[in-house]
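Quick one: structure for this chain?
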Amino acid sequence: MKRLIYIALPAALLLGSCSKDFIKGDVPAKTDVNQFYSNAKEVNMGLMDAYDAFQEEESQLARFVYGDMASDDALKGGETIGDGPDMEALVECRPLSTNDWSYKLWTQCYKAVTKANILVESIDTKADFKGDETTKNRYRAEAQFLRALGYYYLAMAYGDVPLFTNGVTNYTQVDPKMMIRKPVADVWAQVEKDLTEAIPALYTKQTIPSSELGRATKGAAQAILAKSLMFQKKYDAAVPVLSDLVKNGGYQLSPTFNSLWRPGTGDFNAENIFEINYTNTWNWSSDGEGAIRNVYESSRNTWGWGFNQPTQDLANEFEAGDPRIIYTLTYSKDIFQAKTPAEQVEEKNSINNVYQYHSYKVMMLQAERDGMTTGGAGMNEKIVRLADMYLLYAEALVRSTAAKDVNTAVFYLNEIRKRANNTPKADPVRVKQQFTVAANTLPMRVYTSDVQLLKDIAHERRVELGMEGVRLWDLIRTDNTVALDAYYKKWGANGYEARGDLKGKFYGTWISKFAGGKYPTFPIPQKEIDLSQGNLKQTSGY
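Got it. Here's what it folds into:
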């Protein structure tokens, strides 16, 4: 597909295109943005372009590099210790301000923000919708959702950041003096404002047409709003948002956990609240529409490059009899279904890693990869699903003051455990399954104390959502970065994965900020500081 190109700061952004299933029409090869967005069709094209910021390779990879690798759930993996050194620096909690992944997360989020700003401003000032106020309001709400999603990741990762809500179409319009960090409370306030305003105008789960799947919905906006409120410890405010979402959103848990991770049953199913849509194409450019993370994380012995390898620490978290372990991890001697019996060996897991695990949640069978290149996959990425919201709701009900309800919290926690018990202990797509799940069922939780119930919920979030890019953010928002301290202290020098620099700048900054009551943040990219001519200040400690 052709591209619509314009430039904006932060980070001299080149904005690409998108070819989701719900795209209508072609994007002009090059158009003056000030003359564009004059009608509904052009605004829709711009929205597709804005969604693309979260689909692109750098954005895909940054979500697991931070959410998984920078936590106790995953190691870097790859071929050697030198394969992806900036990833390894994050694994060891010691990135510098020149870390490439810190830069990529920053720029991809601001790319989405910049595109969304232009859309909101254009819809408000010049786009003619021919009296169709419903579509106009929905398109504006989608742009607000995408802006909020960008700032959501920025606030979690960096804390105080520049806050722009006006449309900028040329980097020369940006005064470097404007590139200053605003208090993170202001950033969260903008996220809340955008999502609260967007919710009434968006499609619901029940009303979105099948041709529009992948667009933001009311449920998606509620989910990110709830996550934002929980990150800020606004538990009383989060409870009604979560309550409406889980009870009235129209979403349902999949009957079994394993069905979530096969393309035929997992994409756009009844449990998914917001997911990034991919097709089975990739051509190593911003025009590619395939999910590169499936290749990055799959075994080097089959189809992939072996990054983001689950840790033994994560494996140890699963209780005996919990079948979710085999649908979160693959093992070195597993053999999966292939197109023919003679090809089954090609699906054998790789042993070229420390613990001999890979992520099941991104693995694609040989038959599922038909027609796909070695650089892209047609499997959607689940950003938020209902199980996440059940557990977040349970946590909010325990932590809340005004809406405290431990009995309802236990109910939603046990709904997730019941689903685990209904999940097959033998994987239907494994020809040979190395790990045998114990025959017992998971016991239902009962309330004994707030402290114990919160521990039970935290455990359930880790085993239910493992390798889905949420672990680090859970540790930070619950003030549990001390878990990383414990993890590193027991991390031995296995294989080519080093112990980690426990005296590194980043690790020390995390521990000191945790002790001081502030959540730890990543360094501001040095490139951005340079572009701002020094007006953008680095986080203390870097």
